[in-house]
UniProtKB/TrEMBL annotation:
Belongs to the QueA family. Transfers and isomerizes the ribose moiety from AdoMet to the 7-aminomethyl group of 7-deazaguanine (preQ1-tRNA) to give epoxyqueuosine (oQ-tRNA). The gene is queA. Keywords: Cytoplasm, Glycosyltransferase, Isomerase, Queuosine biosynthesis, S-adenosyl-L-methionine, Transferase. GO terms for molecular function: S-adenosylmethionine:tRNA ribosyltransferase-isomerase activity. Its EC number is 2.4.99.17. One of its GO terms (biological process) is tRNA queuosine(34) biosynthetic process. It is found in: Cytoplasm. One of its GO terms (cellular component) is cytoplasm. This is S-adenosylmethionine:tRNA ribosyltransferase-isomerase.
Length: 350
């Protein structure tokens, strides 16, 4: 498939700039794969399509305050630093993006915080925008981490075209987020409220968690027309033996297995065996899923409405079928569903 096949005209006003008033009250478009039936629901009705013993898989990664604003030494030029991942905790080394990149050289010092209390030194230039920073801090590690995160902002997506606000600290995070390491929230999980999770338990719908630390790679624009030539950036993931046992037991009992989000789908498809069973893993994935693709474990997917040309849209099309999903997107635009991390959701079922 070609990149140009994932173009569609998305009106700017349909990109949700803020979250819904309540997590589980976004709209939900239900897509039946084996028919052309579409149903317009609210998200809290999602459990109506599942039964006792069905299994939901969530991503419990936790977003950290990755966006910092500082000043360059001597010139005082304003610099935005986006923390990507910690490289060495003992030396306070971080892989980061810097903007504007042209103003930063190896050896430059950057100052952060109201009183410029946190200082970092640029020690490596790895890409046109990427850098390695060493934070100059002599105190205990926990103290450093607390100070670093206290001056950071919630890294809401750039397409929202606004600064992070206090509400984003809570809402750009899943309620079950546990393991710190993501700079992008797994958006499908944002729709799940505590009340909805409790209703799952009451209905004996089972669920479990894997961890995939969402980076920026899946959200960067693809610059090749031939999708087979696109290389995804690696993301760290953990799938435990306990989760595998539960999922495989549900699979063998012919229960529905629902992936909550494209990050879950990527993690599953990285380790699934040829007989459709999940295998444990503690490592990295750079798997790129686009149509056509055969899924052997999951038979339902919850995902938000994604932006044109995105790898997330490609994964949704791989799961639901290219023509069907692109037609659904036309319907969603016509019915004014909202797009992006804070937007509405789609459930694809058999």
């Amino acid at each position: 498939m070609k990149l140009s096949q994932f173009k569609f005209n998305l009106p700017e006003e349909l990109i949700a700039k803020y979250p819904a008033a309540h997590r589980d009250e976004s709209r939900l478009l239900v897509v039946h794969k084996k028919s052309d039936q579409l149903e317009h629901k609210t998200f809290k009705e999602v459990l109506d399509y599942f039964n006792k013993g069905d299994f939901f898989i969530f991503n419990n990664t936790k977003v950290f305050p990755a966006r910092l604003f500082g000043n360059k030494e001597k010139t005082g030029a304003k610099i935005e630093v986006f923390l990507l991942r910690e490289l060495n905790p003992e030396q306070h080394l971080w892989d980061v993006l810097v903007n504007p990149a042209r103003k930063i050289r190896i050896g430059n010092k950057l100052y952060f915080g109201e009183n410029e209390e946190l200082v970092a030194e640029v020690i490596d230039n790895t890409t046109s925008r990427g850098r390695t920073l060493r934070f100059l801090y002599d105190g205990p590690y926990d103290e450093f981490k607390n100070q670093l995160f206290s001056i950071g902002e919630t890294p809401i997506p750039e397409y929202l075209e606004r600064s992070a606000e206090p509400e984003d600290v809570e809402r750009y995070q899943n309620i079950f987020a546990q393991h710190e390491g993501a700079v992008v929230a797994p958006a499908a999980g944002l729709h799940f409220s505590r009340e909805l999770m409790k209703r799952m338990e009451i209905r004996d719908i089972d669920f479990g968690f894997l961890t995939l630390h969402n980076g920026l790679g899946a959200y960067r624009m693809i610059d090749v027309e031939d999708l087979t030539k696109h290389k995804m950036e690696s993301e760290q993931m953990i799938i435990t033996e306990e989760l595998c046992e539960k999922v495989n037991r549900a699979k063998d009992a012919e229960k529905n297995i629902c992936a909550v989000g494209t990050s879950v789908l990527r993690a599953i498809e990285t380790t699934v065996s040829t007989d459709g069973h999940l295998k444990p893993r503690n490592g990295w994935t750079n798997k790129f899923i686009f149509p056509p693709y055969d899924f052997t474990l999951t038979n339902s997917l919850i995902t938000n409405f994604h932006l044109p040309y995105s790898t997330l849209l490609m994964m949704a099309c791989a799961f639901g079928g290219y023509e069907k999903v692109m037609n659904v997107y036309e319907e969603a635009i016509k019915e004014k569903y909202t797009f992006g991390a804070y937007g509405d959701a789609m459930l694809i079922v058999d």
